[in-house]
Amino acid sequence: MPVSIVVGGQFGSEGKGKVSLELVRMATEGRIAVVRVGGPNSGHTAYDRSGRKFALRQLPAGAIDRNADIVFPAGSYIDVDVLLGEIEDLDYPRDRIFVSPYANVITPEQKAWEVDAGLVSGIGSTGSGVGAAIMAQVAREASNFPLHRHDAAHCGVLEPFLRDTTALMRNWLDAGARIVIEGTQGFGLSLYDGGYWPKATSRATTAAAALAETGLSPMDVDNVVLVIRSYPIRVAGNSGPLPGETSWEAISESIDAQTNLREFTTVTKKLRRVGHFDASVVKAAIACNNPTMIVLNHLDYVGLEADLDDANSKINDFIREVSDAIGLAMTHFGFSDRGMTPNPSQAGRPVRA
């Protein structure tokens, strides 16, 4: 110990990157490391201390302050061009980036295969090649499968970053480091247990799955953070059911917003679909992840942060409704893209509402 895992409780874009960054900033350990599992088919957004906004697909948002070690373990999927571009944009210290030789490298052929297979139009896939890379790995050079696996050990530009990441992290943990695993997407998109297959992603998106991709032990984990949002989203197109689907205009009108609220996906830049809060997928995520923290984000779509002080405000009514619906009290709240506020009435692990 100690290892924190950040996962999403709905259909992605819950604000996991922001929460990961907050956990890094809250950490008191001498060494902090952030692990990015999954691949570049989802983006994480956060602001550095100077207020500059970054929307990252490959580097973890938790490392935006440039003061943490970054790890890409064996269970990660790397688009080399995206990674090198983000390293350049962030001016990240290259001696603090570590890549497992077993990490998967996404190829142009794998991206093209996803497009040709109809996944982009059929399930709302980003076409980033992650699913194809996973299939190539599982196919194990089968003669009747057209794609081949490529790993970081045989990618020349990644050679300076190569390390035995499991041994490295074990040494860090033994010396008292804090490791934050930044999960991707959300529980409702999970391949195994999200409940929406085939409108799902190509991986499991639970805390246990993220840990397995990282190469560490369950005995290392002391904190599982489930991130949810006031109005869940799904990506544009034929991406699957969204209970209580509504419009951005309706949400804007409900809070008398001066301008229409609208969100676009980080990868494809398409307008996201949005729905009213639905407890069913969150309750399933809670059962699977057993979180020690629950962060309710995007509360600015309901009311003002100042209204938290008014027990009878619309925002507190909404928080109570969510708590009653999922059976647990939130430990933290989030407004817009920055920071998170502890629930003053809730200390420690979430309890039954």
TrEMBL record:
InterPro entries: Adenylosuccinate_synth_dom1, Adenylosuccinate_synth_dom3, Adenylosuccinate_synthetase, P-loop_NTPase. It catalyses: IMP + L-aspartate + GTP = N(6)-(1,2-dicarboxyethyl)-AMP + GDP + phosphate + 2 H(+). It is found in: Cytoplasm. The active site is at H44 (proton donor). This is Adenylosuccinate synthetase. It comes from Novosphingobium flavum. GO terms for molecular function: adenylosuccinate synthase activity; GTP binding; magnesium ion binding. Pathway: Purine metabolism; AMP biosynthesis via de novo pathway; AMP from IMP: step 1/2. Mg(2+) binds at G43. Homodimer. GO terms for cellular component: cytoplasm. Keywords: Cytoplasm, GTP-binding, Ligase, Magnesium, Metal-binding, Nucleotide-binding, Purine biosynthesis. GTP binds at G43, H44, T45, R272, H298, L299, D300. Its cofactor is Mg(2+). Its EC number is 6.3.4.4. IMP binds at N41, S42, G43, H44, T126, R140, Q185, T201, K270. Binds 1 Mg(2+) ion per subunit. Pfam families: Adenylsucc_synt. GO terms for biological process: 'de novo' AMP biosynthetic process; IMP metabolic process. Substrate binds at T266, V267, T268, K269, K270, L271, R272. Belongs to the adenylosuccinate synthetase family. Plays an important role in the de novo pathway of purine nucleotide biosynthesis. Catalyzes the first committed step in the biosynthesis of AMP from IMP.
